Amino acid sequence: MTLKPWPIFRVEVYPFDLHLYTAPSRSKARWLAFEAFRNYRSSETFGEFLERGVKVSRVTTPLADDGYDNVRAQYGVHPTIGATYRLYHEGPNSGREVVCLYPGQHTCMIHCAYEGADWPMIVHPMNIQALP
């Protein structure tokens, strides 16, 4: 089984800054942006969010920053986007194979997905083992 990393989407919401999201589809990236947006405007509905002129486009060029600098500095773990890992000490997900995803600009955790997942999974950096 070969796991593939999810694409990265650029989401712009007028009048706010753009943000990057990793998701299996454009619509799921838009929903992740809405969930983040609700931290600022908790009463806004998804319809009102869309009326702001949300633009979603796929990022096609490699990013200069992979978002895992904090993980490297704090844990000495060097995750690679697109690499396959096995989870351990992650409860019912222990033993599961996952692919490393782009986490956003900064994170202290590993963002990953397994085959058939709809949403990213966030795991502790010490709970991954690289697969050959």
- Order the strands across the largest sheet as they lie in space: 7-6-5-4-8
- The CATH topology of the largest domain turns out to be SH3 type barrels
CATH architecture of the largest domain: Roll
Q: What are the segments in which pLDDT stays under 50 over at least 5 consecutive residues?
A: none
Average residue pLDDT: 91
Radius of gyration of CA atoms, rounded to a whole number: 16 Å
What's the order of the H and E elements? EEHHEHEEEEE
Total separate domains: 2
Number of strands: 8
Biggest sheet details: 5 strands, antiparallel
Helix content: 10-25%
Strand content: 15-25%
Helix/strand-derived class? alpha+beta
Number of helices: 3
Shape: elongated
Q: Assign the CATH class of the largest domain.
A: Mainly Beta
End-to-end Cα distance, whole Å, is: 13 Å
Distinctive features:
2 domains, single chain, alpha+beta, SH3 type barrels, three-stranded antiparallel beta sheet
Entry summary:
The chain has 132 residues and is α+β, with helices and mostly antiparallel strands. It has three helices and eight strands, in the order ββααβαβββββ.
Give your account of this protein's structure:
The chain has 132 residues and is an alpha+beta fold. The protein has two domains: 8-58; 69-130, SH3 type barrels (Roll). Helices cover 19% and strands 23% of the residues. It has three helices and eight strands; from the N terminus they run E-E-H-H-E-H-E-E-E-E-E. Strands 7-6-5-4-8 form a five-stranded antiparallel beta sheet, with no helix packed on it. The chain has a three-stranded antiparallel beta sheet with strand order 2-1-3, covered by helices on one side. The mean pLDDT is 91.
